[in-house]
Amino acid sequence: KILLFLGGKKIGDKVLVTNGKEENFDAAKEKCTDAGGLLAAPRNEAENAAIQDLLQRDASQAFLGISDEHVEGLFKYVSGEQITFSNWNLGEPNNNKDAEDCVEILSDGKWNDIPCSLARLVICEF
Ligand code: GN1
Ligand code: CA
Ligand code: CA
Predict the structure, then answer these.
(1) What string of pLDDT tens digits covers the 126 residues of the chain?
(2) 44: which DSSP letter?
(3) N or C, which end of the chain has less CB nearby within 10 Å?
């Protein structure tokens, strides 16, 4: 309940919360695991829409807890399983300049792969 009071969002059994900060992928992952959660990753349309909604309060892009940093082209959740839902923008993922292994969600809910070193809004799931 307190997470919702603090501006979080409930979607099914998941609670989404942002700290309002933009960090690189490793720092963002760490912020979430330090708090006992995971960097948020939508498993379906409804969760994607909830993350999109939360993102619009603080920023225009947020990181998702998804990357292909271990095997190029094979996107996995930070928890290690291969992704089962995606909402890529047209032409994405394009691994632009061979340097994009992390995933941002844009204000329209679509996904784009970007360098993991960029700073994006941190949204955690609990
Ligand atoms: C951006 O800036 P540019 O056009 O090289 C984006 C890529 C997208 C691409 C789509 C850091 O690349 O991830 O695939 O637009 N790069 C960043 O046109 O956002
Ligand atoms: Ca990649
Ligand atoms: Ca891209």
Answers:
(1) 888 888 899 999 999 999 999 999 999 999 999 999 999 999 999 999 999 999 999 899 999 999 999 999 999 999 999 999 999 999 999 999 999 999 999 999 999 999 999 999 999 999
(2) S
(3) N
Question: Is 114 a pocket residue for ligand 1 (Cβ < 6 Å)?
Answer: yes
Q: What is the rounded CA–CA span in Å between residue 8 and residue 53? A: 11
Centroid of ligand 2 to alpha carbon of 39 (angstroms): 18
**Whether residue 94 has its Cβ less than 6 Å from ligand 1:** yes
54 CB-side CA count, 13 A: 33
**What DSSP state is assigned to residue 83?**
P
Other CB atoms within 10 A of residue 24 CB = 16
The residues spanned by each domain of the chain are 7-125
Q: Per CATH, which fold does 7-125 belong to?
A: Mannose-Binding Protein A; Chain A (3.10.100)
Q: Quick check: 15 and 115 in contact, CB under 8 A?
A: no
Question: Dihedral of CA 114/115/116/118: which sign?
Answer: negative
